[in-house]
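Review form for a predicted model. The reviewer records the input and the model, then writes brief findings.
Reviewer: anonymous (R2)
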Amino acid sequence: MPHSKPVIGLVSCRKALDGYSYQAVNEFYADAVRAFGGLPVLFAAGQDEADTAALLARVDGVLLPGSHSNVAPHQYGAEHHEPRLDEARDALSLTLIRLCAQHQIPILGICRGFQEMNVAMGGSLNPAVHEAPGALDHREPTTEDFAVKYAHAHTVTVAEGGRIRRWWPEVAQFEVNSLHNQGVATLAPPLRAEATAEDGLIEAFSLDHHPFFFGVQWHPEWQATELPFSRELFRRFIDAAGANRASPNQESRPC
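Model under review:
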């Protein structure tokens, strides 16, 4: 009997520890997928584009998690130094994003994943958004207390005419956490801004005419079942993946 849960590919990071190289995903993301009825599987960084397309043909949606590494500057035409890179993840994520956009496969990007989506679709990044005049300090709090680290840090304002407005018509603003130093500099032309921070930084975007192509700069995986917008976001993502699983047009997926 076929498995009924939508299968979600979670992009991994390549990390070094004690001389070993590991593939790693924060369990907050896998827990959130499970909580809303999905089945998470790991997409390991390092394979070529053909193998990435073959993996994508076997899942119903993709989740791009956050990470302490940043997208390599050359991916968006910049030359500044980045102390934490993961170019194996860059290659995997950017390929997946473009394939998901082309083949109408649901994809959700969070923090680094949000930034990857912007780069893959033709946008650029600011490596230090807190240095801009009048900017908020969006960086991760220096504490080991997760309740403090992931606490609400600022307000986002919902854009008119977007998906969040349709999902949540009665809500114009809500609070989010903030754990990033990079952010959107130039929004990719195909993308629509969905929410902005008080300093004007784009905090969420979507792709029109796609069942679910959505990115957020904050971290909804933290207490995903407890916070109203996090519940809405993950529920809609997993529902879109479920609809993709049931679609009669699965033969159009990459292979």
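Findings: The first helix runs from residue 27 to 35.
Further findings: The CA atoms of residues 130 and 137 lie 5 Å apart.
Recommendation: see findings above.
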